[in-house]
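Exercise 7.
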Amino acid sequence: MAQQSILGRVSQLMRANINDLLDNAEDPEKMLDQMIRDFTNNIADAEEAVAQTIGNLRMLEDDRKEAGESAVEWGSKAAAASRKADELRAAGNGGEADRFDGLAKIALKRQISFEGQVRTMDGQIAQQSELVAKLKEGLNQMRLKREELVTKRDELVARAKMAQAQTQVTSAMKSVNMADPTSELSRFEERIRREEAQARGMTEVAMSSLDSQFEALEADEMDLEVEARLASIKGGGEA
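Solution. The predicted structure, written as tokens, is:
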């Protein structure tokens, strides 16, 4: 039966150990994608099988109800024919009474036949009900397993992206080593230090030149003072 085949596939998929499969897979993400597709397809087949089995069960239940009603109906007919036969026999009409007793027997046979159908269909209904329960349980397990697979896949993809981002950050950090004295930053800092030292040197040179000029100016003023005093002495002497 198709339903039994579905149950077999459900059982096989349920026994699959996802973690072991992932450990042995060359590409876990692709394998999970394939498993999700397999579960999705089997869930669709299981849903169809469950619907078909439930449909068969409902038909059996309808037939069983109809057979049960027929058994009750023929039992009522048998009882009515038997009463009529008793009435006719009491009235002295034995021939007609026997005919109604015959009809009662026919009705009883029909009743027994329908009761047999009811018993047979009760067994079939019990089997179908059990199968429907198993299929529903298997279907629910497959849905839960598929959700687990989707969660696993999303987790795996997220972890892969995080690992890739971490690798990129690590590579970027390696390419820019701030503590390396030969790095571009260190060389730039050294160049600035040399420029600052040169500026200080030029300032000192400029200040030295300015001091010399002032010293020369002071020397000139002193010479002028000496000449003036000398002239004053000479002038005083002449006087």
